[in-house]
Automatic annotation (TrEMBL):
Protein name: Phosphodiesterase
Gene encoding the protein: Pde8a
Residues reported to bind Zn(2+) 2: 518
Annotated organism of origin: Notiomystis cincta
PROSITE patterns in UniProt: PAS, PDEASE_I_1, PDEASE_I_2
MF terms in GO: 3',5'-cyclic-AMP phosphodiesterase activity; metal ion binding
GO biological process: cAMP catabolic process; cellular response to epidermal growth factor stimulus; positive regulation of ERK1 and ERK2 cascade; regulation of DNA-templated transcription; signal transduction
EC number: 3.1.4.-
Amino acid sequence: QVLLVFAEEDEQSSGFRWACDKAGFRCNIARTPQAALECFLDKHHDIIIIDHRHSRYFDAEALCRSIRTTKASENTVIVCVVQRHTDREESSILPLISAGFTRRYVENSSRMACYNELIQLEFGQVQAQFKLRACNSLFTALEKSQEAIEITSEDHVIQYVNPAFETMMGYQIGELIEKELTEVPINEKKADFLDTINSCIKIGKEWQGMYYAKKKNGDSIQQNVKILPVIGQGGKIRHYVSISRLCNDNNKVEKTCECIQAESQTDTQTCRHKDMRKGSLDVRSTTSRGSDGISQRRRSSMARVHSMTIEAPITKVINIINAAQESSPMPVAEALDRALEILRTTELYSPQLGTKDEDPHTSDLVGGLMTDGLRRLSGNEYILSAKQTHQVAGSLSSPISLNDIPPRITQAMENEEQWDFDIFELEAATHKRPLVYLGLKIFARFGICEFLNCSESTLRSWLQVIEANYHSSNSYHNSTHSADVLHATAYFLSKERVKQTLDPIDEVAALIAAAVHDVDHPGRTNSFLCNAGSELAILYNDTAVLESHHAALAFQLTTRDGKCNIFKNMERNEYRTLRQVIIDMVLATEMTKHFEHVNKFVNSINKPLAALEENGNNGDGESIKTVLRSPENRILIKRMLIKCADISNPCRPREQCIEWAGRISEEYFAQTDEERRQGLPVVMPVFDRNTCSIPKSQLSFIDYFIIDMFDAWDAFADLPNLMEHLNNNIKYWKGLDGKNLRVLRPPP
């Protein structure tokens, strides 16, 4: 919220009013100091802009001081508008700062100058004030915490202790602040205990354990302590936070200290380091599990740790299990322990392949599509895209209009609303430019230009730019694949259940996401790029590398040139919402989260809908609407929609399925060839062009990724024709495999 304090309307105040409207800020105007103060006390504005150019109307500095005397102004940014003087030396801003102003603005009635000023304030000082405002809540939580909390600087100078710490240790806060830690922790059983703690926390790891500490009166108390280093400016440790709890009399069993370090996603996926589970607070006691008292103590400790007030669903599940353990006999408690171990892994949704008789095709597909590769020590690097020149609107020829499409292309798109539409016929008719033509037709059918408030020529330019940045040299990940996914997306959006669920903005986002979801794809997997040390892998920290690149580049290409910026006329908040949905859908095509997306869809949507039908509530529109229309479930549906569109090839008519299988196999063959040339790890060894069985690879992919996902999607969207094609294609590949044929088609 912005408060403008100007005695009279002029170009400067008009400029700020226009800027507030453009930025989407709520704006109030006051003409007198009294009106300004009353308005501020009522609205509590984030920004106040006071006119200091004409002292004859009111004293701007006096007004600022008056506002600053109020409690509400503590986190308010106050800007002073001063006259522009070109004929005299710059004056000092110290009097303005003394009066309470945050910033000085030299008069400039340019609307864009006013807008830029507001945006800088929003993303600078206003956001900083929001954080400071939130600190009051955090300090309230610390003050009320029953655990003793002590915060020290990097040099172990005490910065803060809470009341619980004062009560536990017998000190007053004034006796501790700015004092060095003179009382070192004493552990009677380990002389080098302090060194053990310091060696852990000084390298950025958490430490947890028990030690004896002395109170002010000299008494020794045993504490269960967790010490956390806090990384600050420059990536260095700037503070240490110590959280302590008194041990009960029956809880004095010695625990070994644990160094705790967060487990990286890559480590989890490739190494499965079980010892790193110690990062959670319920670390196992090193004493024997045979003692009932010890196990009971450990379970009580675990339950306390997880009784947090801010809980994720998985935390609630763990709490329920912990509570059940309290009164369970030992065999049940141990079984629940094993359940907790499983729940605390990061890969809850990924099936674990067995080690015996494992299908090498499935294993290689999982390794190639669902991991970020193996780390290499060699210096070879695979350079991609970071320095590549991308096609922009100005470098392309003028695209054709929807009304001027050649007859052959029009004929090829006649049945584009049907699932059996042949994308390869359109590819041939358009000389490998199907995305522009199919995009124009589908976007027109869904009224995309009307929704975005953009012209057809802008849409044509955008489609051409996006298509130009697909690599036609890729056998699979080219603009034909993009057009195919766009077609599947449009087909799914036309299904009745999907139409009931999604809003117009969701449909627009889905179609745009489908068009851009693989833009600038290099024809190599994420694992390859990570192993090769590509610039993109480094840029995106080996995480969803390609998907992040596709989403980012799509918006860069769109917004850098007004000729193809289909978003340029959108209202700001609506654009942000649309952008968020597009990014989320593109990132959903990344395969490492495949089973998470599918399982969430089944559990949150399929099963509740099935339960309603079983209970005879099929006609209960409100109950179904509640399931379909919740924001969380709509996100799951949009992710599932684009995932199914992206890998729908096995559900296409047989000839199309065979063609896509040949194209993806060739791309994987080419990757294996390059990995061997460069001495990189071969992430999918079965995709050797001399030995690979394409039928086996297709059956493995269908069995592992496709069947369950399309069963779930069919149950939701009702797609009997797709499931019939899928069953026929499975029979076809099994027929070839049964004859030990490794090729796409049987010999004549």
